[in-house]
Amino acid sequence: MKVLVVGSGAREHALAWKLAQSPLVSALFAAPGNAGTSHLGTNWTDMAATAVPGLTARAAEAGIGLAIIGPEAALAAGLADSLRRAGIPTFGPGRAGARLESSKAFAKHFMERHGIPTAACKIAHDAKQATKYLTGWQGPVVVKADGLAAGKGVVVCASSEKARVLVNDWYARRAVPGGGNTIVLEEALSGRELSVMALTDGRAVVELPVACDYKRAADGDTGPNTGGMGAYSAAVPVIDEETKASVRRDILERAVAGLASEGIEFRGCLYAGLMIGKLGPMVLEFNVRFGDPETQAVLPRVNSDLCALLLAAARGDISAGPQIDLSRRACVAVVLVSDGYPVRSTPLAGLPQPDLQRPVADVATFWGTSAVAADKVDSVGGRVMTVSALGSTLAEARSKAYDGVAAYRRSLPPGTKLRCRSDIGTSASVDSPQPMG
Questions:
Q1: How many whole angstroms separate alpha carbon 74 and alpha carbon 79?
Q2: Strand partners, 424
Q3: Cα–Cα distance measured from residue 222 to residue 216, given in angstroms and rounded to the nearest whole number
Q4: Cα–Cα distance between 362 and 184 in angstroms, integer?
Q5: Strands 330-338 and 363-367
Q6: Rounded to an integer, what distance in angstroms lies between the CA atom of residue 130 and that of residue 98?
Q7: Of the candidate ranges 68-77, 146-155, 186-195, the one whose mean pLDDT is the lowest
Q8: What count of Cα atoms within 13 Å lies in the side-chain half-sphere of residue 233?
Q9: Secondary structure in 3-state letters for the chain
Q10: Domains (ranges, CATH) in the chain?
């Protein structure tokens, strides 16, 4: 079977890496792909992930038997709808389902309609309305831009006054992240933040291992929010069975049933960003695709044939796929970023490729948006690479991941700056109370 992965980041490299292990896959394509996917198959470098008509025509012409869509922008653009109309089994929701992520206001209203636990909020469309809602607000405020903002549209404000200054600045400069005018003002929750990704055919759900990710730019969960600085997934349960059952029943299954009741067919990955606190699991956000970097921490632990699972979901009967089989080992994924991220992304040229001839046992590297140039790699900057490592314990996986990071840094040309957080996989960064959004 010919399989197409849409996207260009480390998530798509990880998906392609796992899919390439399936005996069902005869040829692998990526659009536009990156330096990593170029070693696994054929990159369609002339096709942007949001080039809906062109990608649909190319996929049909190539005889693609399964398409997996990575980026949220492609889903919001209706790529899955277009591919399905062309008769191509596709893993990823259509434009209607993608609104769970592309509009935070829609997602909050959806959760209210279907009784899905989430933080209290107010939705504002201009500075005057926002100021009115913030008057008398007690405690921290999570300010969220309504639209897609590459993980950078959420700001946790320590007080309502700081939130007022922020939103007034956004509106005055017409600079609400992601465009538009709508913002969500949300109660700040505290507890333990984690992510659950589930594969669904629109009826049933198959949960992937729980992952804990690190959104803030600097150690100790300080600095601005980012698209993600790292993640881990451990065999040792991070939540008890009662909480796990609540997540499945009250969040994942309720969301899928709610979508179906509204006439929205959702075949893809439903990602729930959760805060586990005194009130039980509550939804911080829904994403409608695999998380990045959570995917790089979860897929190395999946022993099942991923292609068979995604194909069954894309065809509308996930029960026809294999049972999920998970490794008992832990995985830690550390993201290397360019200097200045997330405030700015610095393009980097001439990066060395990890030694493909002598790969390190249990360590995999996944490229961000990049291209091969004369046996080197040119990166657009931002999140450059994820180093993922398996270990019999979380501590061992963490040690291997940072050993991999150190080894790659030693190979860099003089003057090239790549940084990472040093606390990925340590419990201190995820167990302490923290207001997140």
A1: 6
A2: none
A3: 6
A4: 42
A5: unpaired
A6: 26
A7: 146-155
A8: 27
A9: CEEEEEECCHHHHHHHHHHCCCCCCCEEEEEECCCCHHHCCEECCCCCCCCHHHHHHHHHHHCCCEEEECCHHHHHCCHHHHHHHCCCCEECCCHHHHHHHHCHHHHHHHHHHCCCCECCEEEECCHHHHHHHHCCCCCCEEEEECCCCCCCCEEEECCHHHHHHHHHHHHHCCCCCCCCCCEEEEECECCEEEEEEEEECCCCEEECCCEEECCEEECCCEEEECCCCEEEECCCCCCCHHHHHHHHHHHHHHHHHHHHHCCCCCCEEEEEEEEEECCEEEEEEEECCCCCCHHHHHHHHECCCHHHHHHHHHCCCHHHCCCCCECCCEEEEEEEEECCCCCCCCCEEEECCCCCCCCCCCEEEEECCEEEECCEEEECCCEEEEEEEEECCHHHHHHHHHHHHHHHHHCCCCCCCEECCCCCCCCHHHHCCCCEC
A10: 2-94 (3.40.50.20), 126-181 (3.30.1490), 192-327 (3.30.470.20), 330-419 (3.90.600.10)
The two tokens of residue 101 are 């992520």
| Beta-bridge partner residues of 141 | 157, 187
Q: Please state, in angstroms and rounded to a whole number, the distance separating the CA atoms of residues 110 and 114.
A: 6
Quick check: 291 pLDDT over 60? yes
**Number of Cβ within a 10 Å radius of residue 359:** 11
- Could you tell me whether strands 376-379 and 348-351 are parallel, antiparallel, or unpaired per DSSP bridges? antiparallel
Q: What does the CA dihedral 217, 218, 221, 226 come to, rounded to 10 degrees?
A: 0
* Tokens matching residue 408: 């790659």
Q: How far apart are CA 75 and CA 70, in angstroms?
A: 8
Alpha carbon distance 332, 343 (integer Å): 25
Both structure tokens of 349:
């040229």
Predicted TM-score (pTM) of the model is: 0.94
Query: Which residues are CB-neighbours of 375 under 8 A, at least 6 positions away?
Result: 353
pLDDT digits (tens, 9 = 90+) for 132-162: 999 989 999 999 999 998 777 999 999 999 9
| Residues 6 or more apart whose Cβ sits within 8 Å of residue 299 | 14, 15, 17, 18, 306
Q: What are phi and psi of 425, to 5 degrees?
A: 90, 5
Q: What is the pLDDT of residues 199-252, one digit of tens each?
A: 999 999 999 999 999 999 999 999 988 999 999 999 777 788 999 999 999 999
